[in-house]
Automatic annotation (TrEMBL):
Name used for this protein in its record: Peroxisomal bifunctional enzyme
Gene that encodes the chain: ehhadh
Subunit composition and interactions: Monomer.
One GO CC term, this protein: peroxisome
Location(s), subcellular: Peroxisome
């Protein structure tokens, strides 16, 4: 786990060996501990170089070990202290990355040499933690408080060049890092080390320290959205700035104790693995990620250059593809060309055309036109005629039937959905939607392309809204019902924002445009002139229906773009939402017209009704086999719908709340609202509760048993 050999006559070269990222699991900690002791007592050794196997220094503590109540083997703090106290110089040779405990290890060395492509950082905050093995105390002593706090709070990866400027690295080189570190180690043999032991150094002084930390704490509180780890980062760094090292270490230990087994830390760490779980996709046919080969893709066409098409063009170009961007409306094409060039800052290989023929020779097409089945069908038919045989035809539809589009083509097995999220060049999620006729090779190719674009890609089955939008529907529906019953958009949004969403449901609708849902409801036959005549306004298909969104659109209130929606904005396109007296009036009149009596609605009811309805649909998605696992659903919600990471995604949240409690809540609300089928607990949830509410990683066994009985 930690290889030891003496090189160049006097240098102990210790190499961490724990693929794939050299995480510091118990055996590694033990190996390091023993290797340092050996170097200490080896008379031949006058210096030490610490490196990682296979071009990777160290990815930090082993996150998989964190579930253990007491971690086996020597504690990281103990290993790092032993290293810092060594009387022989220790040089870290950093290749690849030194992250989390990996960087803490490097900070316990006396010198740090990095390869120019190396990256360092403290991503613990993303895991609901902070650098709690000495990192929060050593880094500020090396680079100063402001730089250290920034690195610790953001969790960002710092490139070698910047790390050198900050003084985090002593040297950056382009050649073999270990060889350079060995040469360097020999040059410092016998030299005094005291100033290189960060634990011995005071923190560089900071003017207006109180004001600095107060300001930092305010900023963190306003951005953390209920996450505790970022607040702890500030507290720990403040300790480094004000306390002697050993006292700072005591504070760090105490703070880590409050986080280590917390619900937020568990949720964040679950998200880390859920993000990666999507790569191991499977289809109901049994096709899997490890048995299907992706087709090589070098060229792509994007059809339709609205907001989504432009973002997709940028994402594909940034992934190194040569892209043909097609838009039949000339003025839109010129505008898109300017916008895409701006986003790509002159880089990327993109050509533009008003003619679909330009897609004739590409390997893959992403259709991103208006959300209208008839238009999309026409385009798929044309593409099938125009494109060379074997071209993968994909659609960015957010709700429509992939199989119906496939049936317009010559080769339905080459059709899949690639559902991007706006803005497509920034949002990490990609839903790859397979229809009953999509080939495993087509799915593998879309998944592989998602990876190239840096997306969290999740393969899902075909149904209206797929996974994300299907689950969103009952959530939105509950929010509207709550308005009818007496809530305001402000009350609903405040509850959801306090839960951790960056934006409540009504602010989000205003941002994405109320007309989008209106159009979908018209397509679904829920609203529109021919539909409403003679029908009770609040019932559709024998179920409760809220026409509030339709009425808003009829008033021309589409949200931010028109300057008013659920909120008022200072101008069309304005961003700052203000309460709108018109809306209060409108809601009062609406309730009066329908004989509804407004009641007081608590934040708890808002959360339970909106979130439980969404979660319930998540169970149905699992039950129907549309998502392969709860982890996939959670990745979709965290990376596509900004579900707070420290809550772990909707399905993980349900497991933390307790499945029995979610079931009880749904039963309660369904009894109160029997005309709302989305509140009726689904049978998978009932079965899970009846099976004793197993942990989330065991749900699949109940799902499988359930499916075999269908
Ligand atoms: C950038 C990466 C390192 C590499 O990226 P990439 O090349 O794309 O590869 P991936 O697909 O991401 O990863 C490959 C597989 O490796 C797995 N992996 C990666 N990192 C780790 C890890 N650190 N541990 C375990 N496994 C890891 C990954 O899951 C992949 O496998 P699979 O596909 O899922 O099967 C990238 O991987 C990355 O960013 N990694 C994470 C880096 C990171 O976050 N590091 C920080 C970890 S936390 C840490 O180091 C320190 C925490 C501080 C406290 C620690 C103290 C511990 C003991 C305290 C006990 C105190 C108790 C107190 C209570 C009391 O007092 O009572």
């Amino acid at each position: 786990m930690a290889q030891y050999r003496v090189v160049s006559g006097s240098v102990a070269l210790i190499t961490i060996q724990n693929p794939p990222v050299n995480a510091l699991r118990a055996a590694v900690r033990e190996g390091l501990f023993n290797a340092i002791k050996r170097a200490s007592s080896d008379p031949q050794v006058r210096s030490v170089v610490l490196s990682g196997h296979n071009g990777t220094f160290c990815g930090g503590a082993d996150i998989k070990e964190f579930g253990n109540v007491s971690l086996p083997g020597p504690h990281l703090v103990e290993v790092f202290q032993l290293m810092e106290d060594l009387v022989k110089p220790v040089v870290a040779a950093i290749e690849g990355f030194a992250l989390g405990g990996g960087l803490e290890l490097a900070l316990a060395c006396h010198y740090r040499i990095g390869h120019s492509k190396a990256r360092v950082g403290f991503p613990e905050v993303n895991l609901g933690l902070f650098p709690g093995a000495g990192g929060s105390q050593r880094l500020p002593r090396l680079v100063g408080v402001p730089a250290a706090l920034d690195i610790i709070i953001t969790g960002r990866h710092v490139a070698a060049g910047e790390a050198l400027k900050l003084g985090l690295l002593d040297k950056v080189i382009d050649q073999n890092t270990v060889d350079a570190a060995v040469t360097f180690a020999k040059s410092v043999e016998g030299k005094p080390l005291d100033n290189h032991r960060l634990g011995n150094r005071p923190c560089p002084p900071l003017e207006n320290m109180d004001a600095f930390f107060e300001e930092a704490m305010k900023r963190v509180h306003s951005r953390a959205r209920g996450a505790v780890a970022p607040i702890t980062c500030v507290q720990a760094v403040r300790g480094a700035a004000t306390l002697p090292f050993h006292k700072g270490m005591e504070l760090e230990k105490m703070l880590l104790g409050t986080l280590f087994n917390s619900a937020q830390a568990q949720a964040s760490q679950y998200c880390f693995f859920a993000e990666r779980a999507g790569a191991r996709w499977s289809m109901p046919s049994g096709a899997r990620w490890d048995t299907c080969k992706a087709k090589p893709i070098g060229t792509a066409a994007v059809i339709g250059l609205g907001t989504m098409g432009r973002g997709i063009t940028v994402a594909l170009a940034r992934a190194g593809l040569s892209v043909v961007a097609v838009e039949t409306q000339e003025h839109q094409l010129a505008e898109a060309q300017r916008a895409v060039s701006r986003m790509l800052k002159g880089g990327g290989r993109v050509s533009y055309s008003p003619d679909l023929q330009a897609a004739a020779e590409v390997d893959l097409v992403v259709e991103a036109v208006f959300e209208d089945m008839a238009i999309k069908e026409k385009i798929f038919k044309q593409l099938s005629e125009v494109c060379k045989p074997g071209t993968l035809l994909t659609t960015n539809t957010s709700t429509l039937d992939i199989d119906r589009l496939a049936s317009c083509t010559r080769d339905p097995q080459l059709v899949v959905g690639m559902h991007f999220f706006a803005p497509a060049h920034i949002m990490r999620l990609l839903e790859v939607v397979y229809g009953p006729r999509s080939s495993p090779e087509a799915v593998a190719t879309a998944m592989q392309l998602g990876k190239r674009m840096g997306k969290v890609s999740v393969a899902v089955g075909n149904c209206t809204g797929f996974v994300g939008n299907r689950m969103l529907k009952p959530y939105l529906e509950q929010a509207n019902f709550l308005l009818e019953e007496g809530a305001t958009p402000e009350l609903v949004d405040a509850a959801l924002e306090e839960f951790g969403f960056p934006m409540g449901v009504f602010k989000m609708s205003d941002l994405s445009g109320l007309d989008v849902g209106w159009r979908v409801r018209k397509e679904e036959g829920l609203t529109g002139p021919g539909v409403t005549a003679g029908q009770p306004m609040r019932i559709r298909h024998s179920r409760r229906y809220s026409p509030l969104g339709d009425l808003m659109c009829e008033e021309g209130r589409y949200g931010q773009k028109t300057g008013s929606g659920w909120y008022l904005y200072d101008k069309p396109g304005g961003r700052v939402a203000r309460s709108d007296p018109w809306l209060r009036n409108f809601l009062e009149q609406y309730r009066a017209r329908h004989g509804l009596v407004a009641r007081r609605i608590s934040q708890q009811e808002v959360l339970e009704r909106c979130l439980y309805a969404l979660i319930n649909e998540g169970f149905r998605v699992l039950e129907d086999g549309i998502a392969a696992s709860p982890q996939n659903i959670d990745a979709i919600y965290v990376f596509g719908y900004s579900w707070p990471k420290h809550r772990g995604g909707p399905m993980f949240y349900a497991s933390q709340v307790g499945l029995a409690r979610v079931l009880e809540g749904l039963n309660h609300y369904h009894q109160a609202h029997p005309d709302v089928p989305h509140l009726e607990p689904c049978s998978l949830l009932r079965r899970l509760v009846a099976s004793g509410s197993p942990p989330i990683d065991k749900w699949s066994e109940v799902v499988k048993g359930h499916r075999s009985q269908l």
